[in-house]
Amino acid sequence: MIEDAIQKDLNWCETLIRNNSSSFYRAFKKLPREQAQAVFAIYAFCRIADDAIDVDNNPEVVKAMAVKLAAFEAGVTPDEPMWRALRWAFDHFPLKIRPFQEMLIGQLQDVEFKQPETFNHLLDYCYLVAGTVGLMLCPLLAEPVTMEAEALSVELGIAM
Predict the structure, then answer these.
(1) What's 79's domain CATH number?
(2) What is the reported pLDDT for 4?
(3) How many independent structural domains does the chain possess?
(4) 141-156: per-residue pLDDT in tens?
């Protein structure tokens, strides 16, 4: 049973995905409830960062998220619904912090986007902004989490 306080935060994340990506919402809602709620928390993190750049053109939001993520990694959870929900997800699933850090790096690259000069540069960019999302979700979708599962998760993230 999930505490009422954290349930409100998880519901906040669920509302965000339901209102902004009905196809992802319908797909991930079919997971077992706790897995789905962890996906919704991850989605909220990604959505906030992505919208800060793509919609609001405000890299300061992403820079602030990077600072909060460093605090989060050190055990300090920012007092906001998305961060509390994300803490719950990290506490209940073997999530890794690195893909979250790398995704923020990719979002900041979007601010001064330059057309990739080589295919490898394109792949690097795609990894940062999309492959990392696959890695974030891998512990929720694959059991056990193997190197092969992680590699496939990166490919799935890029494909989405």
Answers:
(1) 1.10.600.10
(2) 83
(3) 1
(4) 988 888 998 888 898 8
